[in-house]
Design a protein that fits this description.
The chain has 513 residues and is an alpha+beta fold. It has 3 domains: 265 residues, Bira Bifunctional Protein, Domain 2 (BirA Bifunctional Protein, domain 2); 109 residues, Herpes Virus-1 (2-Layer Sandwich), CATH 3.30.40; 99 residues, Anticodon-binding domain (Rossmann fold). The chain contains 18 helices and 23 strands. The strands form 7 sheets. It has a 7-stranded mixed sheet with strand order 3-9-10-16-13-12-11. A 5-stranded mixed sheet has the order 20-19-21-22-23, sandwiched between helices. A 3-stranded antiparallel sheet has the order 5-4-6. It is globular. It binds glycyl-adenosine-5'-phosphate. The site of glycyl-adenosine-5'-phosphate has 19 residues, from strand 10, strand 13, strand 16 and helix 13.
Length: 513
């Protein structure tokens, strides 16, 4: 646990030191759970968004994109169920005055039990050596089975109580498990209450005529209300999808864990409209397609797992999360939801407008079913960034900090370094920059010894360093150094574009098997 916390602290300080993420309004001591993306962060974020958009929109003939407004007619949120049901169960600690999500306190308690299981596995693996069979051990070891049953019983009870709105039982569970305030250890809790997560705002100049609005808590509703406009103007045939990226806002109670849970964040969502009755198939297809998208980035298959939901949201007939192993454990990164015809039907009812599709093959109209894929861009940023930050022991006994970002996502693709600041080397380096910058985001760096510049670019996540030396003046060759292997090659200046492109082009990454 302490190791995880250390790694997470390193992630936070590296993100700031290398110009990836800053706290919002830092000079005023910041705003809780709101962050700004800095000069490198904005590039990484844009590259993740582009990688998603390319794979979801550009590579799918039957998916198109939109960019709906953040402010929507307030009835949208009545229809979607957010006004009545977009709540989190919160609990306050009377001594510390800190507020928590009751379900998160209970889930964190279960995570601690999971930690005990992991310890047992490690101990047994050491004892049995090569003969160790993890699956068999998990299925047969008495102590481990006891832990697993305890977790299952706790989560089942919590799920049932939340479903039945039995908040008194949620509190009783917290007390029975003797869960304490993580910051102070106090067990002096208030009752559990429901808390709506939407931010309110007003539209209009005068207090009397102003209309109460909400900042959208998800981008999806902008797609639903535009379903028929897009279908008709794009002559889309079912099955088809509408994709969107954009800001969403939630007044989160537990706003810890850096950019994992923010009050202002960005989503990348796609609603796939299908014929009723085919949603199960499409749900499985999208689960697999989205997992493959994640795997294409090479962050390690062992860092992903599906979590199928037992407790479904009010609109879903099936739902799963793709969880990622963040520095603080496995947590939701993306949701895939089979949303039935709930949203379109609700908007039909509340607007009085038909939102139906005429199926020429079936010769009838119907309200399509929807399978949704929904990923938080900031969470994806954190997954990529935290997984890429590594400390490496080198053969000469020193260590280096390297940010091994997938090169397709790296903010700066190459740094061009003149070996010295004289003898015409900066001029040649500048010429290389002037040529490469049309195709890639590149940087020029002439300060400090070249070894230090390599280290700086490693920590910055730059996949290539290109060094111009005195021989370059004679033979038009440069040294290209690869961030991950530190291998250096002598190549012609004219070859640079091809070498970089091969490694950073999304085509190469998305086609990788
Ligand atoms: N339209 C469905 C929807 O919004 P969700 O599970 O509430 O579903 C989808 O959110 C994704 O948005 C999550 O998997 C997560 O990646 C991201 N997300 C949700 N709340 C967030 C927050 N407060 N901060 C950052 N990302 C968040």
């Amino acid at each position: 646990m302490a190791k995880q916390e250390d790694q997470f602290k390193k992630v936070l300080s590296h993100a700031k030191e290398y110009g990836y993420v800053f706290q919002s309004s830092e000079i005023y001591d910041g705003l809780s759970a709101v962050y700004d993306y800095a000069q490198n962060g904005v590039e990484l974020k844009k590259n993740i968004r582009d990688y998603w958009w390319k794979s979801m929109v550009q590579l799918h003939e039957n998916i198109v994109g939109i960019d709906a407004a953040i402010l929507m007619h307030p009835t949208t949120w009545k229809a979607s169920g957010h006004v009545d049901a977009f709540n989190d169960p919160l609990i306050d600690n009377k001594d510390s005055k800190k507020r928590y999500r009751a379900d998160v306190l209970i889930e964190d308690y279960c995570l601690k039990i999971e930690g005990k299981i992991e310890k047992e596995v490690k101990k047994a693996a050491k004892r049995f050596g090569d003969a160790f069979n993890k699956e068999e051990f998990l299925a047969t070891n008495g102590r481990v089975k006891g832990y697993q049953e305890k977790i299952a019983a706790i989560l089942a009870r919590m799920g049932k109580s939340l479903e039945n709105e039995d908040l008194a039982d949620v509190k009783a569970l917290i007390e029975e498990l003797e869960i304490a305030d993580p910051l102070t250890g106090s067990k002096n809790w208030t009752d559990v209450k429901q808390f709506n997560l939407m931010f309110g705002t007003k539209l209009g100049a005068s207090a009397e005529s102003a209309m109460d609005l909400y900042l959208r808590p998800e981008t999806a509703q902008g797609i639903f209300v535009n379903f028929l406009n897009v279908q008709k103007t794009g002559r889309m045939k079912i099955p088809f999808g509408i994709a969107q990226t954009g800001k969403a806002f939630r007044n989160e109670i537990v706003a810890r864990q850096f950019i994992f849970r923010m009050r202002e964040f960005e989503q990348m969502e796609m609603q796939f409209f299908v014929k009723p009755g085919t949603q199960k198939e499409w749900y499985s297809t999208w689960k697999e397609t989205r997992l493959q998208w994640h795997l294409s980035l090479g962050l390690g298959a062992e860092n992903y797992r599906f979590h199928d939901h037992d407790k479904l949201a009010h609109y879903a007939d099936a739902a799963a999360d793709i969880e990622f192993k963040f520095p603080f454990g496995f947590k939701e990164l993306e949701g895939i939801h089979s949303r039935t015809d709930f949203d379109l039907k609700a908007h039909e009812e509340h607007s009085g407008k038909k939102l139906q599709y005429f199926d020429h093959e079936e010769n009838k109209s119907y309200v399509p079913y929807v399978v949704e894929t929904s990923i938080g861009l900031d969470r994806m940023f954190l997954a990529v960034f935290s997984n890429s930050l590594q400390e490496e022991e080198l053969e000469n006994g020193t260590t280096r900090t390297v940010l091994k970002l997938p090169s397709v996502l790296a903010p700066v693709k190459a740094a061009i370094l003149p070996l010295v600041k004289k003898d015409g080397l900066p001029e040649v380096a500048r010429k290389i920059v002037a040529d490469l910058k049309w195709d890639f985001n590149v940087a020029y760096d002439e300060k400090d010894a070249v070894g230090r510049r390599y280290r700086r670019q490693d920590a910055n996540g730059t996949p290539f360093c290109i060094t111009v030396d005195h021989d370059t003046l004679e033979d038009n060759m440069v040294t290209i150094r690869h961030r991950d292997t530190m291998i250096q090659q002598r190549v012609g200046i004219s070859e640079l574009k091809g070498i970089i492109d091969k490694e950073v082009n999304a085509k190469f990454w998305l086609q990788k098997k």
